[in-house]
């Protein structure tokens, strides 16, 4: 493992970003968040990347903000910069034109839980634990709340936010915080197979679909249908849709141009 705060590895359309602060449970220092933003931004126009996998090094996925660093700085301006940078990072994930998968082992707490909720998909070890424990130390998890309330039902979100209790992977799956929980020794293969499956699709189609999903999510149903009808019309006209339909009819594998 290198000394870099963030390790990037690209392989056949899959970009794996590893949070690399194992001695601090990959706590989101300001510098780590800035590196994540830079890495995600560089992927936007990289047509070789069709899916991003975010994971943590060491014993856990991510323990949230680096509270030692924040207390050490101790200024309002620094706190503001930290939370604004975190918010920018989460929005960068959602606006990325390719799907982002959280691969979780160990704990994902506070802003680490927010990161899981922000990713488009999430798979965890059956031994993983999740929490938004800020209320226990007098700091309500308000920014994690933004992502969590958009992933789970309101009462489930309030349960996490008001109690600060750890929940296990089975509970996290049942409330929709994660998609799958698998045996610890199957986590790597499951996440990699999932990433490769998505990476086999047309990047252009993935981009259109992800953007449309978040755009229509909170619209009234009539507006959502109107918007998505226009998007599907535009989608039908791209090269990859024409190729995909032709390949389906001809019973052959598609050859994507990613445009």
TrEMBL record:
Keywords: Fatty acid metabolism, Lipid metabolism, Lyase, Transit peptide
Xref: SUPFAM superfamilies: ClpP/crotonase
The protein's name: Enoyl-CoA hydratase domain-containing protein 3, mitochondrial
Role played: May play a role in fatty acid biosynthesis and insulin sensitivity.
Signal peptide: none
Taxonomic classification: Bacteria, Pseudomonadati, Pseudomonadota, Gammaproteobacteria, Oceanospirillales
GO function terms (MF aspect): hydro-lyase activity
Top-level taxonomic group: Bacteria
Alphabetized Pfam families for the sequence: ECH_1
Annotated source species: Neptuniibacter caesariensis
UniProt record similarity statement: Belongs to the enoyl-CoA hydratase/isomerase family.
């Amino acid at each position: 493992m290198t000394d870099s705060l963030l390790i990037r590895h690209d392989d056949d359309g899959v970009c794996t970003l590893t949070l690399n602060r194992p001695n601090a449970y990959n706590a989101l220092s300001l510098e780590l968040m800035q590196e994540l933003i830079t890495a995600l931004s560089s992927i936007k126009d990289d047509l070789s990347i069709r899916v991003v996998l975010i994971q943590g090094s060491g014993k856990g996925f991510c323990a949230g903000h680096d509270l030692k660093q924040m207390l050490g700085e101790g200024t309002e301006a620094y706190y503001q910069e930290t939370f604004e940078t975190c918010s920018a990072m989460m929005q960068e994930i959602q606006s990325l034109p390719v799907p982002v998968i959280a691969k979780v082992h160990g704990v994902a707490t506070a802003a680490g839980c927010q990161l899981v909720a922000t990713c488009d998909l999430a798979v965890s070890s059956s031994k993983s634990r999740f929490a938004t424990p800020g209320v226990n130390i007098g700091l309500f998890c308000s920014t994690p709340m933004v992502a969590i309330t958009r992933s789970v039902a309101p009462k489930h979100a309030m349960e996490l936010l008001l109690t600060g209790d750890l929940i296990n992977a089975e509970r996290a799956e049942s409330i929709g915080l994660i998609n799958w929980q698998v045996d610890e020794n199957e986590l790597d293969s499951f996440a990699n197979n999932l990433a490769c499956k998505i990476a086999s699709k047309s990047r252009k189609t993935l981009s259109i679909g992800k953007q449309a999903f978040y755009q229509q999510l909170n619209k009234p149903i009539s507006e959502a249908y109107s918007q998505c009808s226009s998007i599907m019309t535009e989608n039908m006209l791209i090269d990859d849709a024409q190729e995909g339909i032709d390949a389906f009819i001809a019973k052959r594998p598609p050859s994507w141009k990613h445009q």
